[in-house]
Specification:
The structure is a single chain. This protein is mainly beta. The longest helix is centred in the first third of the chain and has 4 residues. The N and C termini lie far apart (74 Å). The chain is built from one helix and 25 strands.
Length: 295
């Protein structure tokens, strides 16, 4: 049977069509922007038209025919990647071709994927998209990648993530984006559009020994590099604000695979340098606390 739905509200609520086993086809109006958890869980949808829905819960189509029909495990609704249930260790840009948004929690707690190359079409990595992907080691992107936003907690607790490329169009990174990525040792900024590194962005990235700031960076927010292992920091001229605890407790943990509360830190940050034409006018409290600065 067919169902043609015309609604004025912008949300399909939780469990609205759950277990509708005769529902094979549905056309959603452009006004729909949000689809909540279990909205179509267990339904027999063969296909779906979702033209402007940008907030789709990863379990909106749980156990539906539609979810199970994606043999590669990459559940797509329109150009939004909803969730991943596959077994691949390496996801290529071709695997993700056409995807513009990776949904909140799409890869949450996945233990299969080790490497991912972002497609050029991608614009948003949403909140918690890769949160807790314990075996993810590297994230790559081409010069032409359209990614402009890495949302809060996007790669939090990716404890084996070692390298990350921030593509050239990124304008926004939100708080805790790489929090607790203990083995992250290489971050490459290709963007010059990023004006702020948010609070706790790289906190507890205890293998990060060096960083080259992106051109035009203005603000480093509170705790941004807390308990990293930086040895030297060169502040470029565009930086004006360094907030509280941004570079506090810099040092190497004896065993950074333990919980941070158990770390025994050996201080590493010995040198900070400001370019001659630096215009810093604010350094927050405790910004460089508990370091062994010599110059």
């Amino acid at each position: 049977s067919n169902a043609f739905v015309g609604v004025e509200n912008a949300t399909i609520k939780e469990s609205t069509f759950e277990n509708c086993t005769s529902l094979h086809h549905i056309e959603l109006p452009d006004a729909i922007t949000t689809i909540e958890i279990n909205a179509f869980a267990g339904a027999s949808l063969r296909d779906s038209v979702v033209s402007k829905a940008s907030k789709i819960h990863k379990d909106a189509f749980k156990n539906s025919y539609l979810e199970q029909s994606f043999e590669d495990g990459l559940v797509r609704i329109g150009t939004v990647l909803i969730s991943y249930h596959g077994n691949k260790e390496v996801l290529s840009a071709q695997d993700l071709a056409g995807i513009t948004s990776i949904n909140p929690n799409a890869f949450d707690k996945d233990s299969k994927v080790k490497s991912i190359t972002l497609p050029d079409s991608l614009e948003i990595i949403d909140e918690n998209a890769f949160d807790g992907c314990v075996n993810l080691e590297s994230v790559y992107a081409s010069e032409n990648c359209n990614l402009n936003k890495i949302a809060a907690n996007a790669f939090k607790d990716c404890k084996n993530l070692k390298s990350m490329v921030i593509p050239s169009n990124v304008e926004t990174i939100e708080s805790y984006a790489f929090y607790n990525c203990y083995l992250l040792n290489e971050v490459t900024f290709k963007t010059n559009k990023l004006e702020s590194l948010p609070s706790y962005c790289f906190a507890n990235c205890n293998s990060l020994e060096s960083i080259t700031f992106p051109a035009n960076l203005n603000t480093i927010e509170a705790y941004a590099f807390y308990q990293t292992a930086l040895k030297k920091v060169n502040f470029i001229s565009s930086i004006e604000n360094i907030e509280a605890y941004a570079f506090a407790n810099i040092g190497k943990a004896a065993n950074n695979k333990l919980a941070p509360s158990l770390w025994k830190i050996t201080p590493t940050l010995k040198e900070i340098k400001f370019e001659d034409n630096t215009n810093i006018y604010y350094i927050g409290k405790h910004a460089f606390e508990n370091n062994i600065l010599q110059s």
